[in-house]
Amino acid sequence: MASILALLCVVEAFPKPPRTIPPVNPDDPQRLPPGVTRNVLIVGGGLAGLSAALELAEKGYNVTIHESESYVGGRAHSVKFEALGQIWQVEHGFHAWFHNYHNFQDIRKRLDIDKYFVPWEAVDYIFKDYKPESIASKGPYPLNLLGIIFDSPNLVLTDALKAVLALPDLVEFDYNKVYQKYDNMTLDEWASLRRIPKDFFDIIIAPAASVTLNDKATISAAEMLMMMQLYFLSDSKADYRETATQNYLTALFNPWINKLQSFGVEIKLNSSVTAFVMDEESAAFTGITNDTTPGRYYDYVVMATDLPAIKNILTNTAEMYQNKPSLSGRVEKILQKITNLNVAPPYKVMRVWFDMQLEDSRAKTILETPNFVPINLVAQYHKLEKQYIEWANKTGGSVMEFHLYTWAHGDVPDANVWGIISPAVKQIYPEIFDRNFTILAYHVNTYQNFPSFEMGSASFRPNCTFAMQCGIPNAVFAGDWLHTSYPSALMERAVSTGREAANEILLKDRVKQVPLVVTSSYGPGIL
Ligand SMILES: Cc1cc2nc3c(=O)[nH]c(=O)nc-3n(C[C@H](O)[C@H](O)[C@H](O)COP(=O)(O)OP(=O)(O)OC[C@H]3O[C@@H](n4cnc5c(N)ncnc54)[C@H](O)[C@@H]3O)c2cc1C
Ligand SMILES: *[C@@H]1O[C@H](CO)[C@@H](O)[C@H](O)[C@H]1NC(C)=O
Ligand SMILES: *[C@@H]1O[C@H](CO)[C@@H](O)[C@H](O)[C@H]1NC(C)=O
Ligand SMILES: *[C@@H]1O[C@H](CO)[C@@H](O)[C@H](O)[C@H]1NC(C)=O
Ligand SMILES: *[C@@H]1O[C@H](CO)[C@@H](O)[C@H](O)[C@H]1NC(C)=O
Ligand SMILES: *[C@@H]1O[C@H](CO)[C@@H](O)[C@H](O)[C@H]1NC(C)=O
Ligand SMILES: *[C@@H]1O[C@H](CO)[C@@H](O)[C@H](O)[C@H]1NC(C)=O
Ligand SMILES: *[C@@H]1O[C@H](CO)[C@@H](O)[C@H](O)[C@H]1NC(C)=O
Fold first, then answer.
1. Mean pLDDT, contiguous 10-residue spans, the chain (527 residues)
2. What confidence score (pLDDT) does residue 361 get?
């Protein structure tokens, strides 16, 4: 074993640095020329829509955002909640910002909000059949992987090495080929094809699948291999992550809204888009059906809603123009492809205020619990965000958030959720029951709007220009459900596709595009 280690230490491997996608029109002007007005409609005020808005507004575009909810932020939102005699900001759910979120990091700098983020390095896991793990990647590849295996109380070095270091699918990862090769099988099928040792699969690979909110039994092997590249292999720090020290309204969305408003962006809340108005000659989307301002005209539309919403809007649009096949036919062409894309199973996020705090030394700020269905993760908010830290300090209480992905208990009242998850909570933190913690308040979110990355779905995933390819000349997509030409996922895919959407518009007007910094498409290389 020592000789394997020694051998690996002397062999050079090549972590792949991120790549910059430069503007295709570097010599064009930085912004719209004076006197030129371009009106842009952005549908959806989540991360994708806000990212597109930032780039376009900064370059002189007249941007209007229509958001159906009474708040921006989409699946990363933070809203007010009254309990225990005070107003709380409650997130849709706890989020982690990863090392490879290069475009998000750029946005954070421009909004001057880095001060609200702190690192969280080791990731703590508990399992049913293994000892707890605290996984931190240190040093360059392959030492980072070796270190993880070496420190693990569960993994046997030689088996794990055979599993990973010799595995071309990981070390010679190639983003441009991975979907073609592996989207036709599930993660489990891939693992048995490649004879991945069970412990290595259960401890390192399977937990990553749960963060996608997808059903582990059907998730595409290709999508998961991409995630391994993004969150683990491309860089020795790839698994480093940060958390916010303030609620997401303070840490992220208020600074973002202020910046947009300083450029004159109009954000219309409670404003749900139902269908687009189309120009009879050009087939462009020029407005929305029940706009209250007569004669308003948009030069461009960014479709930045979640997947179910954009399917609805486009279905309504096609119906409205069914007597004009030259218009409806183009919209139907878009629908024909994206109709095949599904949403992941429903999920809940439950935040609970208790009168006591855990004494258990395993009470980590964030604990991942991949085998304790229906709980995937527990976050102790009184150790994370300022308002919660202060309350816990005053009262001795605690606030814990339980992420309940692939919820299989149907439509139940919020009051019943704790009862359903109690058996799993008891296994994770028995102390809550042994010491008779009292629940002082709780808040439950229930949604089903997360893109499914099930096997076989990749070929139906459009990129941001797909509507243009279908003959709608002025409309672009943005959102975490799209295909990108580089590895990306979740929040980073949302902001990156927002920037891509803006770039398509900039190119049409011959305004210099904004560069993107993206994770390398290639694995660290064979030893
Ligand atoms: C519990 C949970 C935990 C997560 N954890 C992480 C994490 O740790 N790291 C990470 O990177 N990602 C995480 N994510 C994923 C991340 O939140 C999403 O990938 C990202 O927020 C998606 O942004 P988006 O702009 O593409 O879509 P959305 O946020 O869904 O934005 C779409 C917007 O469109 C609006 N809209 C819908 N219909 C209409 C309409 N008809 N008219 C106008 N507006 C409309 C919606 O209200 C919404 O604001 C997590 C998600 C959840 C739910
Ligand atoms: C900018 O957009 C707003 C809102 O859509 C509109 O009222 C205004 O007239 C536009 N400005 C110009 C110069 O077109
Ligand atoms: C949006 O609707 C909510 C709930 O009806 C209301 O409280 C809020 O004031 C509205 N916001 C705006 C900006 O219209
Ligand atoms: C998946 O596709 C590859 C490449 O086209 C093929 O070799 C393989 O047999 C397919 N596997 C399954 C399970 O369909
Ligand atoms: C359009 O009308 C519907 C139904 O009255 C409403 O819910 C929606 O918010 C309106 N949208 C806009 C953009 O005004
Ligand atoms: C609350 O904060 C004060 C000041 O930082 C500290 O001295 C005290 O120990 C804290 N109390 C609790 C219960 O954490
Ligand atoms: C918790 O409650 C049970 C039942 O009421 C009681 O038997 C037990 O002593 C209590 N435990 C503590 C630590 O208070
Ligand atoms: C989107 O896909 C089309 C067709 O495959 C391709 O030509 C185009 O370059 C892609 N655009 C982006 C931004 O990736």
1. 45 73 98 97 98 98 98 98 98 96 98 96 89 83 77 82 73 94 96 89 85 88 94 85 97 98 98 97 95 86 98 98 98 98 96 94 86 95 97 97 96 98 97 97 96 97 98 98 98 99 98 98 77
2. 67
Q: Quick one: which atom of ligand 5 is closest to the CA of 68? A: 9
Q: What is the pTM of this model?
A: 0.95
Q: Which domains does the chain have, with CATH numbers?
A: 2-16+135-233 (no CATH), 28-75+252-341+460-511 (3.50.50.60), 91-99+112-119+242-248+344-447 (3.90.660.10)
Q: Is the omega angle on the peptide bond into residue 413 within 30 degrees of 0, that is, cis? A: no
Query: What pLDDT is recorded for position 12?
Result: 43
pLDDT of residue 440: 98
Any ligand 5 atom below 6 A from CB of 126: no
Q: Residues enclosing ligand 1, CB less than 6 A?
A: 43-49, 66-69, 74-76, 92-93, 95-96, 272-273, 304-306, 309, 313, 349, 403, 449, 479-480, 490-491, 494
463 lines ligand 8 (CB under 6 A): yes
Total number of residues shown for the chain: 527
DSSP line for 416-455: HHHHHHHHHHHHH-THHHHTTPPEEEEEEEEE--PBP-BT
Query: DSSP letters along 58-114, please?
Result: HTT-EEEEE-SSSSS-GGG-EEEEEETTEEEEEESS---EETT-HHHHHHHHHHT-G
SS3 assignment, position 471: coil
Query: By C-alpha distance, which of 31, 19, 20, 46 is closest to 505?
Result: 31
State whether the beta carbon of 465 lies less than 6 angstroms from ligand 2. Answer: no
Q: Which atom of ligand 6 is nearest to the CA of 394?
A: 13
Q: Give the pLDDT of residue 213.
A: 85
> Distance from the CA of 393 to the center of ligand 6, in angstroms?
6
Nearest ligand, CA 395: 6
List, in sequence order, every beta strand (DSSP E) within 132-274.
133-135, 241-244, 266-268
CB 340 within 8 A of CB 453: no
Specify the ligand 6 atom closest to the Cα of 396: 13
Whole-number pLDDT of residue 3: 46
Cβ atoms of 236 and 148 within 8 Å: the answer is: no
Strands 62-66, 475-477: pairing is unpaired
The reported pLDDT for the residue numbered 287 is: 96
